[in-house]
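Here is the promised in-class demo. Please do not try to memorize the tokens; focus on the logic of going from shape to residues.
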């Protein structure tokens, strides 16, 4: 079977896909991807948030025990690849593009992620003079109620940069998605880019994310 690395774009994506495929001998592709995403999210969260550290550590340990030492090392290297790729070029939906190219999206759940170039265009068209809003309000918030891997929010962050606005200090990012795995993909990408905010896992139509304040800085629940 040919490698799916031939289908992705750029050296970073190809390297990441090849490493991922090397893990899919004893385990299914979806299982490996989902486990890796959870482990990455736990590692990032435990570095900055101690509130539920022990619970996350148990989850990480349970998942990691399914894999050999060599496989766990590969998973750690994959996270390093993501960090390096976003450090080199943050203007991309790295995890989302790979996820869709690998065919991991669930058509029955409507998982057809918006291409990143479209997200960039949408952000540019709907984000006029962000600096003036920050100057007037002190900060701005942005929300995506069907965030997927976070492409639209990542695009907004990059639009802020183009408009000379420091999104790391002046923007609150709020995301929600019904799918646990892709919601964590969004969390990983926003975290690695230094986007302040939170990701809610849940059905936006039935249980939309709410907050105690008007602009969403203090999430309810």
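The designed amino acids, position by position:
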């Amino acid at each position: 079977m040919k490698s799916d690395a031939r289908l992705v774009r750029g050296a970073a994506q190809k390297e990441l896909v090849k490493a991922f495929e090397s893990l899919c001998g004893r385990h299914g592709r979806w299982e490996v991807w989902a486990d890796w995403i959870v482990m990455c999210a736990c590692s990032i969260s435990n570095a900055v948030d101690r509130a539920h550290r022990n619970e996350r550590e148990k989850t990480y340990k349970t998942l990691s025990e399914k894999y050999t030492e060599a496989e766990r090392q590969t998973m750690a290297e994959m996270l390093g690849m993501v960090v390096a790729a976003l450090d080199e070029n943050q203007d991309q939906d790295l995890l989302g593009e790979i996820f869709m190219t690998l065919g991991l999206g669930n058509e029955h759940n409507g998982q057809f992620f918006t291409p990143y170039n479209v997200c960039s265009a949408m952000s540019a068209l709907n984000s006029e003079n962000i600096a003036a809003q920050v100057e007037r309000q002190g900060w701005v918030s942005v929300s995506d109620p069907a965030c997927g891997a976070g492409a639209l929010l990542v695009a907004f962050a990059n639009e802020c940069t183009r408009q000379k606005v420091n999104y790391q200090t002046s923007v609150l990012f709020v995301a929600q998605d019904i799918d646990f795995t892709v919601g964590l993909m969004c969390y990983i990408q926003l975290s690695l880019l230094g986007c302040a905010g939170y990701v809610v896992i849940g059905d936006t139509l039935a249980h939309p994310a709410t907050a105690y304040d008007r602009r969403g800085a203090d999430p309810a629940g």
